[in-house]
Amino acid sequence: MIKPFAKTDDVKKPEDSKARPMRADAQRKMGSLLKAAEEIFQESGVDAPVRAIAERAGVGLGTVYRHFPQRSDLIKAVFQSRVDACADAASELASRYEPGEALARWMQRFVDFIATKRGLAAALHSGDPAYSALPGLFNTRLLPALKSLMDAAVAAGAVRPGMDAEELLHAVANLCRVSHEKEPAYARRMVALLVDGLRYGAAAVETTPTKAT
Predict the structure, then answer these.
(1) Greater model confidence, 211 or 31
(2) Which residues, including other chains, have CB under 8 Å from residue 124's CB and lie 6 or more apart?
(3) Listed residue (98, 79, 107) closest to 170, CA to CA
(4) Where's the HTH tetR-type domain (predicted)?
(5) Which of 41, 69, 97 is the last residue of a domain?
(6) Which tens digit of pLDDT belongs to each residue from 117-144?
(7) Exposed, middle or buried by CB within 10 Å (0-12, 13-18, 19+), for 96?
(8) Contact, 17 vs 69, CB < 8 A?
């Protein structure tokens, strides 16, 4: 069972849940808070004391409770931020590298995401309805990101056609699950081999002339 935040007398409850646009300093503070929460969750699990998160982020307890009245709110925010970062990396990599390399680098980013998700596993698999919408982010954010990279790589002749993006996401997740007890570099090597498998035969497919009818 995921523990809720402990109550404290010196923390004010939010009076209005409608957030106004954040100032730059507030955005930096929020980024630090989410990063600290992610690190603490990976180290100590999602039941870690909120005080430890606040101290690492360099913010007061009131800041944490003001933005995240419930522990589930913070857990969901951490997960959402990691999904968004992974999905947004697709367009960034596509603009900097050729299609095959962009795909390969994003796959490694997804490995990092799986490592982050493991720190949130107790919450995500708890059956708490507060987290029921989170698995859908794979289809709405990560799947389109991977598909765009795969389509570009296929068009460039960098990988062979006919591969399913959803199956590839599950394949990487399974490789990471198997390598959980091994060193982190193991999962990266296995995924690199998987990407090499996607490249096999791609050039032959691209250059094979169409038979005359």
Answers:
(1) 31
(2) 79, 117, 131, 134, 135
(3) 107
(4) 27-86
(5) 69
(6) 877 887 888 888 988 998 899 899 999 9
(7) exposed
(8) no
What is the rounded CA–CA span in Å between residue 196 and residue 191?
9
Q: What is the 3-state secondary structure (H, E, C) of 38-96?
A: HHHHHHHCCCCCHHHHHHHHCCCHHHHHHHCCCHHHHHHHHHHHHHHHHHHHHHHHHHH
**Token code pair at residue 169:** 């996401």
Same domain, 126 and 52: no
With respect to residue 65, please indicate whether it lies within any of the assigned structural domains: yes
Domain co-membership, 94 together with 187: yes
| 28 and 56 share one domain | yes
- CATH code (residue 109): 1.10.357.10
What pLDDT is attached to residue 194?
A: 92
pLDDT digit string, tens, across residues 10-33:
444 434 444 455 667 778 889 999
Residue 117 is part of which domain span?
76-202
Please state the pTM of the whole predicted model: 0.79
pLDDT at residue 103 tops 70: yes
Which range has the worst mean pLDDT, 71-75, 105-109, 203-207? 203-207
Q: How many structural domains does the chain have?
A: 2
